Amino acid sequence: MELEQLRYPIGHFTPQETYTPAEVKTNIQIISALPSKFINLLGGWEDDRFNTPYRPDGWTVRQLIHHVADSHINAYTRCRLAMTEDNPTIKPYDEAAWAELPDAKAAQVELSLQLIRYVHLRWVLLLNSMNETDLARTYYHPASGQISRLDTIIANYAWHSEHHYQHAYQLAARNNWQ
């Protein structure tokens, strides 16, 4: 399998100009399903498997799961900021540096699986409460220089959820760990 396919198993995220209510609902369902998908996939793994990189020169599965927890906590917070402020400027963070912190390299995966589970419960409650006006609310990301609508953010994190799930799933499939 070539490196690009290992890096982007479902392709790159491509935002749409607009999202229908049905598309938003589907994207929220994808976000909602992620915790149980990860728990079902990873629940029977021995701890040493989590130290396996999902691709050459990539993060270990341990770092990957901790990254998803970090990323989705930030996404939830950013959604709340966009819901309560007019086009707030969000705080970027260095994902690669966070993945190298001691807790991301050594902490038990179960800690982040539980964080993902509970953050997603709250996040999905918020997402499901949004109406058309809420979905059009925005925030500004200073690192990218982009203003993003919440419906696009929801689509991006649905993609992000499946993107990283596939990293772990395809590693498990390649190694017959299922």
UniProtKB/TrEMBL annotation:
InterPro entries: DinB-like (IPR024775), DinB/YfiT-like (IPR034660). Residues 35-167 form the DinB-like domain. GO terms for molecular function: hydrolase activity. Keywords: Hydrolase. The keyword Cell membrane does not apply. Pfam families: DinB_2. This is Putative metal-dependent hydrolase. The lineage of its organism: Bacteria, Pseudomonadati, Bacteroidota, Cytophagia, Cytophagales.
